[in-house]
């Protein structure tokens, strides 16, 4: 069994309200084809949540069971604060990058709702990340991290969420994807554009550009090799993230880092996601992303950290006015964690500007003539 | 030789001038610019240029192709800085030329002439790198606030005096269909050595107009419509059906729903940082598009505007053409909406990697009296509106000569090292 699967069956790290435990003999219970849903609401009697606990940032967490096409089952995990009125208030759907988790968007979600109190935020855990679990029925099945599969996962989560809340239709949608998540949401809005079109407002991609991502992939293996593989404690892991400036906000690191790790039998903490095992898919994640980004439906926002690293295709697209580009010099790669308030205000502005239900444009000349006005 | 001439010589060699001198030049430039209105009046002949973006060596190539200041009268439509490696030298050279020959060069503001944008897209960092402090950037930004928002070119000839030079390649059939003597040339496209790439006669009716073929650079393009703006699909050059007799409005981006007359541009308070919204923002950020009416701009600032908006604006303001920059055009220039608006782009191989050519637009002087005389802004006989054009109002836009040029050979000295590769990218 791969280390990925092994880590999947470990209990989530404390403090976290316990989900229904999944045992390896649990297959019989997941034979229903419809998605079944468990919602875990924080229980006051269970434990007192600290300031870095997810309950400070989201209303609920969802466990969404789904039978996958290849005979495997998935138990997706996501954090959500639903929109007040799903018929008109937007839902921001956030997809983290490889090796990260849904809690990467925790503080961002809170900042966003401070600006737009009726908005919803759905931040999912991708397979093999955070608390999402892929339960392969066939033992030999190796984890599939292809872009298509991750895209299907994201769509499954969105549709299961809709079913869970019995929304007659999806709320107005703004997708936000960081790094690999950017590739996923770009692919999602392209491949499933028709399905999402009725309520899709737009998508934002955080700090990933095909050209520079492909360039950087060459260095990824050595980067991963240099990372510590074990931490003595959660606080030492948090400390490592801030000390190396991987994350630049200590507050955010305290919220997000615990969800990246899993406790080993020795009591130490190892990475929950084995990034090296995802290496075969790295190139395919990003190849063709610029064209998809420019070609997709909906409004487009690209947020880059530090400096502008556009590749040729995006440079031409940007200079022809095809998307909105924002560069945040003071942020590191994890834009949503480093400058959550700034990103939240960009996201809200992006939503407000592109919300067609509130859009009033000046009149067309032909309409003015039809009304008998002098033009 | 005056100090200013020395500065110009030094900057032409792509060497920055000392901070104290920058300060002085910026001060003088501001004194000059403050006297200019929001819309500067410019007399033809004039050579109109689009975005430069700190591509100093390409700016030198532009001067080689278009002629030197003060021999040629220039109008630059903004975006002098950012992205290229020599924003400082490019902008200071243009500014020194402006101070030295105020009547031979006009500079208007682009969306990159702003504090906020330059801190992100390179000019700020370049100043810091070259001077060790942000002072020069600050002086330049103060100048930005005084740049005019637009220019109004009057006295342009309706017909081109065809150049004597030969065709670069065998002319296409369309061009041969009219004998050289009868031709009233409206558009001529030259390459950087002055050879004719294409020449288009004046077209007077819609029928004739539709027979006009596009330049060979865009085969298969429907002649009646061009592709989406900025798609790089074509640099279509077509006969004009603008209003007869009219000036040419030059602005960096385009129109604004808040501006229905040029006088409204004149009323703006321009001496400020480019705002995030409003008329001044729109003039610097908007783009024409194949839509009806107004649309949201995907850029996050400004608007998209369609053919009806342009034709209505031109009619109302007695314009024959709007000339703008702001959008990368792979072929250097692109006329849209029956030649009522043109995009001119003057940064070849943009950002040293986009592979596009650049163009400048020459408008000749109306010396023969065969052209139009400018009319007043009165509303007489306009009540029927532009969507039912009358034959007698069929148009004579200015004769337009585009010179297309490629990037200068790059001098790699002085280029900063490649940007560091991101260390983490999953």
TrEMBL record, chain A:
The keyword Transcription regulation does not apply. The active site is at residues 179, 207, 333. Gene3D superfamilies: alpha/beta hydrolase. It is an enzyme of class 3 (hydrolase). Keywords: Hydrolase, Serine esterase. Residues 92-345 form the AB hydrolase-1 domain. Residues 11-20 have a biased composition (Pro residues). GO terms for molecular function: protein methylesterase activity. Residues 1-52 are annotated as: Disordered. SUPFAM superfamilies: alpha/beta-Hydrolases. Its EC number is 3.1.1.-. The keyword Oxidoreductase does not apply. It catalyses: [phosphatase 2A protein]-C-terminal L-leucine methyl ester + H2O = [phosphatase 2A protein]-C-terminal L-leucine + methanol + H(+). Pfam families: Abhydrolase_6. Transmembrane segments: none annotated. Demethylates proteins that have been reversibly carboxymethylated. Demethylates the phosphatase PP2A catalytic subunit. Belongs to the AB hydrolase superfamily. This is Protein phosphatase methylesterase 1.
From TrEMBL, chain B:
It comes from the Eukaryota. The keyword Zinc does not apply. The keyword Hydrolase applies. Keywords: Hydrolase, Manganese, Metal-binding. The active site is at 112 (proton donor/acceptor). InterPro entries: Calcineurin-like_PHP, Metallo-depent_PP-like, PPA2-like, Ser/Thr-sp_prot-phosphatase. Residues 163-182, 208-240, 372-392 are annotated as: Disordered. It catalyses: O-phospho-L-threonyl-[protein] + H2O = L-threonyl-[protein] + phosphate. Residues 210-240 have a biased composition (Low complexity). Its EC number is 3.1.3.16. Residues 108-113 form the Serine/threonine specific protein phosphatases domain. Pfam families: Metallophos. Residues 163-180 have a biased composition (Polar residues). SMART domains: PP2Ac. GO terms for molecular function: metal ion binding; protein serine/threonine phosphatase activity. Gene3D superfamilies: 3.60.21.10. Belongs to the PPP phosphatase family. This is Serine/threonine-protein phosphatase.
